[in-house]
Structures
1.
Amino acid sequence: MPPVNRDQLARAQRIQTWSILIGASVMLSLSMGMRQSFGLFMTPVTGDLGISVADYTLAIAVQNIAWGLSQPFIGAMADRYGCRPVTIAGTVLYGLGIGATMVATGTFMLMVGMGLLMGLALSCTAAAIAMTAAARAVSAARQSLMLGAVSAAGSVGTFIAAPLAQVLIADHGWQIALVGFLGLTVVMLPAAFATGVVDRIPAGRAWGTGPAEPDLGFRGILEEAANHRGFLIMAASYFVCGLQLVFLTTHLPTFLADCGEDPMLGAQALATVGVFNIAGCYVIGWLGGRYPRQILLGIVYILRSLAIAAYFLMPVTPASTLLFAAIMGFLWLGVAPLVSGLVAQIFGLRYMATLTGIAFLSHQVGSFFGAWGGGILYDALGSYTLAWQLGVAIGLAAGVAQLLMDDKPTPRMLRAQAA
């Protein structure tokens, strides 16, 4: 057998690493960019189909709950069978969901397309799978920074999708805007394929590490997670992240319209979120490699809640809206590298997609209430006042709980580290 050329091996690993990181970034960017732009469709879709705001937000709520309920199982499939079949299937499902939404004539097809199909697609293409692939592609020392960088790149999609959707809606209607989104799923396909390069790395390890972690099985890792109080607190606190962010992406355009602002301001606000999220994800990811991640998470939740309270208490202007969007954007997806990093720190990499999926289920229950609950309160009261007040109160409580989280690795991981 010829000797191994270490330089060639290192070069091949670098190429594969960048393929994974770039693919995961593009896939996450477009997947989340489209998802965070559906609030722009609320007014034209409800007017054209003759449905209520609550009906539309129910479809968004179904999307989020389908995403959350399926994420642990899709994460387990990625851990067991590899990322590539999952990410490619998710991209196809995204296209099918957009197509079903385009031909919708009422609430049912809207829930099937924008709700169920897109929810399943997001389980396969969004943060849980992208973060798992990125974490396995780099060494432990670089994980937090690279997770932040992938999250930062992932936020570019909002800057692309929101203005694209608003321009197409204004000029050609919401169905043509969805055709534009269909084109974005075509770009996602090669990115999903590239993300699957991570399947060449043995399960439960990253480039340059030692032996793979033991196979506990799905039941075993569930028992390990259920017995870690810190993980349970982190998962429960993740609820507020979904509630606040989906409430804003779904309802902010309608709130601005009620205040008499130009409809384009909603798109500009979402685009501003995307721009500032780039810096926020990178900075928070960098900080996560130097300071306790659970403390940073608690601070993010508290700052978000204070920003929401300040915005809704002040007079609404374009300047205050864009400033609010910039602050929220900086604090937007930065929680993803922190949560993913904590899962890797506590449990290791072998079941990272499964466990981040379980935590994400809590996030999506919050998203469900942020989307649908906000719509119900708006229809019942004619304003969003009670909705944002509840969001702020829950956010502050979750932030304090997160500050007290125990981030100690499991006994299994402590034994592995000692060995």
2.
Amino acid sequence: MGEAITERDSLPVMETLGVTTLVSDSGVTRYRVNAEEWLVFDKKNPPYWAFEKGVYLEKFDTLFYVEASIEADTAYFYNKQELWKLMGHVHIQNLQGEKFDTDLLYWDQRKKKVYSDRRVRIEQPDRVIFAVGFESNEQLTKYTFFETEGIFYVDEEQMAAAPAPADTLAPVRADSIK
């Protein structure tokens, strides 16, 4: 027999395995969450939900179309702050099919903002961008990258057809792209 646990904050108030749940906001279903394990710590300061064995989340618009999907190895949701902290192999796909990959991401639901200060890889149909840090709206449709670099595809036939005079060519800095 072990000693009694006197510190209630070290135990989850709820432990659920094999979770699929829908989360609503003002009576409208907004999210679907799938997780192997969901722990709720209501006595921690601040209280939070823990998804330490991974989480997959879909965000719906008002017509239940998936606006974005998020997958992470580990996630914490601080319900009083309405803040998600996603860690590990974080993969996001927005409605335009753009893919975001990083190892740390925050989603502030109050401010309707997604951001990271870590290295992020963004795959778009015509380019791949690498950055250290970015911030975006919740839909990941309007974003700003920091410390950027990237791979940009150039149509060489089109460039050869209309060359610019040599004195008007100027290098394009990848960190100027937003």
3.
Amino acid sequence: MPTMPAAWRCLARLLALALLLAQPGCSSGTDAPPERIVLIVVDTLRRDHVSCYGAKTLTREIDSLAAKGQKFSNAYSSFHQTTVSMASLFTGRTPSLESGKDGAAIEWNGRTACGMYRFAAKGEDEPCFPASISTLPALMREAGYWTIGVTSNALLYRPRGYDHGFDDWVEIEGKWVGPGKPAEFGKYTLPGQAPERNGAAINAAVTDALGRRPKERLFLYVHYMDAHDYLGNEVPYEKGVADADFYLGQMLANLGEQGLLKNAVVVMTADHGERLGERQVVPGTPSHYGNPSFEQLLQVPLVVWPARFDDTERLVRGDDVFRMLKEIAGIPDEGKTDLRPGELYVSESEYRTYSEGSWKSFQSRLTNEKILINLESDPGGTRNVADEHPEVLAAHEQRTAELAMSLATPVAGEGGFTEMERERLKALGYVR
């Protein structure tokens, strides 16, 4: 019998996945905890570049999940940068760089770059992800799940504490390489593919990790970098998004072939978005450096398959995704929230960003400039209407001051970044 071409095998797997997702019997159909929970994070994925949210970029695999499950129309990252946003998603807490002193931010360094330094034990040399906080994977493990994490983001690595609670933690490491350069890296690099942290490498690592699991009850976290790496790959952002969509679909198809999507729940989201040259009320910084955190940096997709929740229109922050995943797993909620429902606070190094309803404000730490935007009439954030609505601005200032104190870090870590941390920042293009 002739061998089926690779392209046809891939198509067959994707068709099988589509049929599997279409079958209502593939999940429990109840609110009972599923046997498997899959958390997919696509790094730097803007909500408005996912086609089921109206984008021109075609994301068939995400669309398939949304069509058979549910999509949340008002999901937001807790921060514009991965170390902080993922710390929030893994802990359910609001990240903060507040010092509690004259509106100043704490120093951004290797200890504080997770936004959780206020939980560090005083006088102890803790990682920037303090051991005192319960993490999502640790809670999943306590609930009886075998926990696997596979990531290729160089800033999510073992000394910082992101692996806490994972039974099997895989880091796809190596220096950046661009197209046409030899990929001489770890065992998950596939021939002729660069950079080494693309979705193919991630999926190979997922396959290996699944082969090591001792039981079927599983929590799997997978972090794709293809959308993030569009600049280094010298391709349009849309191409990076399409690549990530393809690879996550391939990974889900592989899970389906192994029967691991039966009685499973899949949650797909992003850690943050990306600026793509928009002109806004203040210049800000390019890419996803924030300062301030415009909507393009914070609006992310959130898809759950099969449908598990009633209200898909409410504001869902990164820390809320933590609580959603706990609810899916049947883990009791301890009620530790820092913000009211419907509000978002981003404590940045140069700005304090606050939003509630249709209003969003930026307060500069450097110049004390205050900016107010009406997101309903000006979703692109191009006009400051602070003078026209002083009462709204005053309310934002008061609430921001309250949050700055409640989220303050009593002991600021010092010491800058280690050489290893600088190399990892270079690997992501953040420093030269």
